[in-house]
Amino acid sequence: MPADATQANPRPSSPRRRSEKSRTAIVTATRELLLERGFDGLTIEAVAARAGVGKQTIYRWWPSRPALVADVMLEDADKILASVEHTDDLTADLLGWVRKLAATLTTARGSAMLRTLTVACMEHEDTAVKLRAGFSLPLHDSVRTRLLAEGIDEPTAASAADAIVGGVVYPILSDAQSYSRKRAELTTRLIVASLAR
């Protein structure tokens, strides 16, 4: 190979590092702007400006604004999604789980994330499918699986999981500041007590 061939096609210095740095900057900028402006106020232009990248860099990884938001939300969802413990006390297991869920979702970041997830799901079906699979379904399945382990039949376990998860999420969406862990616990106790009957 001629000596000048290697100079004509020099190896890129470290494209993966540069790309990962840009990707991290985009995710961070998106997260910050979602907290500041919400889903409706977030634009690709604003993300690009804050991340210090061009719009085309964002579109290289995400085909649309909802797709970007979904991925960022799902990264944060990992901090919220936790399995219900399996001890010999169903009530204690579920109470421990709803306490953690309510504590997380009533923080400024948690309630903003929940609102963003809700709006994104209502407005964009592709995003909704992704967010349901990565966030809503794992929340529900965690509770349902614990109830099934207690010997509760599938339809009842699914409905009770709807009631427990919905009983925490809905009031937080309505008014996160006034929602308390005690209220989450009371809702859960009422549902578990109804199963015992």
Automatic annotation (TrEMBL):
DNA-binding feature ranges: 43-62
Molecular function via GO: DNA-binding transcription factor activity; transcription cis-regulatory region binding
Region span, Disordered: 1-23
Keyword DNA-binding: yes
Domain spans labelled HTH tetR-type: 20-80
Pfam families (alphabetical): TetR_N (PF00440)
InterPro entries according to UniProt: Cro/C1-type_HTH (IPR001387), Homeodomain-like_sf (IPR009057), HTH-type_TetR-like_transc_reg (IPR050109), HTH_TetR (IPR001647), Tet_transcr_reg_TetR-rel_C_sf (IPR036271)
Superkingdom assignment: Bacteria
Keywords: DNA-binding
Name of this protein: TetR family transcriptional regulator
Source species of the chain: Mycobacterium rhizamassiliense
